[in-house]
């Protein structure tokens, strides 16, 4: 039987998505039911256990197709990047109108109504999805009124489909953000999430994990030529790690050395990782 990456394919020995019928053997094939993430952000795990490591995070407003639904946990696939895993059932709700906007600021509060003096209901990170149905101006501040009656500051949102002009500039806005394995928000994220979020903001489809990005994101460069003529936006890969050049000599990366999203001299990072037995494995460039 073909081996499927459990991170990207909803396939288990006992259960698989209906689309895999005839390709795999499974006890049950399920069509899947669409749900919408209603938590600000929620860990997606490889097992239905809060003690299980975090693979990634699902963000408010993202669609999650459920193939197994239980009282406590649901197993399915995140529509944004196809990641498969387990989410708490309470973090999912029935889909309403399709999202019209995404959060373009690093993070922004959601209020019970258009009034910044009210206690906020949540804090949404860049990439979260919301449905705007109206606008209201209160004391010279424009609010977007959402489908559920809540409100957010309008200038922190961008229509779905509208892209940022410079994905590296988006990544640079995360400088100083704490490093969090599996994190995918402006409160904590890992190396590949930094690249994914920034690319998605610019309309560039990017897979979630660094090994996927090394195989699929942009075009692979000849390492010798790329090192001789480095460019802003070049992606440098090591085993289990990725960073982006903010200028020809400086790497921006979420890393476990500084435990932040940090700027470091590329030469220093390369030397440190080589000493740890981790040479550069690839350099890729997004056209």
UniProtKB/TrEMBL annotation:
Gene Ontology BP, a term: proteolysis
NlpC/P60 domain: residues covered: 161-287
Keywords: Hydrolase, Protease, Thiol protease
Protein's UniProt keywords contain ATP-binding: no
GO molecular function: cysteine-type peptidase activity
InterPro entries in the record: NLP_P60_dom (IPR000064), Papain-like_cys_pep_sf (IPR038765), PG_Endopeptidase_C40 (IPR051794), SH3_16 (IPR041382)
Keyword Mitochondrion included in the entry's annotation: no
SUPFAM superfamilies per the UniProt record, alphabetical: Cysteine proteinases
Family to which this protein belongs: Belongs to the peptidase C40 family.
Protein name, entry field: Glycoside hydrolase
Organism the protein comes from: Rhodobium orientis
């Amino acid at each position: 039987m073909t081996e499927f990456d459990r991170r990207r394919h909803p396939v288990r020995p006992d259960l698989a998505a209906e689309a895999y019928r005839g390709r795999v053997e499974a006890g049950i094939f399920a069509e899947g039911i669409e749900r919408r993430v209603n938590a600000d952000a929620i860990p997606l795990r490889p097992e239905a256990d809060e003690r299980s490591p975090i693979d990634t995070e699902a963000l408010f407003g993202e669609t999650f197709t459920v193939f197994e639904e239980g009282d406590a946990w649901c197993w399915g696939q995140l529509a944004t990047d196809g990641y498969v895993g387990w989410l708490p059932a309470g973090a999912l709700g029935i889909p309403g109108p399709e999202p019209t906007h995404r959060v373009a600021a690093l993070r922004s509060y959601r209020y019970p109504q258009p009034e910044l003096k009210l206690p906020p209901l949540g804090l949404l990170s860049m990439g979260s999805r919301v449905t705007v149905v109206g606008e209201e101006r209160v004391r010279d501040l424009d609010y977007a009124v959402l489908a559920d009656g809540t409100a957010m500051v309008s200038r922190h949102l961008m229509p779905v489909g509208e892209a940022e002009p410079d994905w590296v500039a988006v990544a640079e806005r995360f400088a100083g953000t704490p490093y969090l394995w599996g994190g995918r928000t402006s409160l904590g994220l890992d190396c590949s999430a930094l690249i994914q979020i920034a690319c998605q903001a610019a309309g560039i489809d990017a897979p979630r994990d660094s090994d996927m990005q090394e195989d699929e994101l942009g075009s692979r460069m000849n390492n010798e030529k790329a090192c001789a003529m480095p460019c802003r936006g070049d992606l440098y890969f090591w085993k289990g790690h990725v960073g982006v050049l903010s200028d020809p000599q400086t790497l921006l990366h979420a890393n476990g050395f500084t435990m932040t999203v940090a700027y470091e001299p590329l030469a220093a990072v390369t030397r440190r990782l080589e000493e740890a037995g981790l040479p550069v494995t690839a350099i890729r460039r997004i056209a």
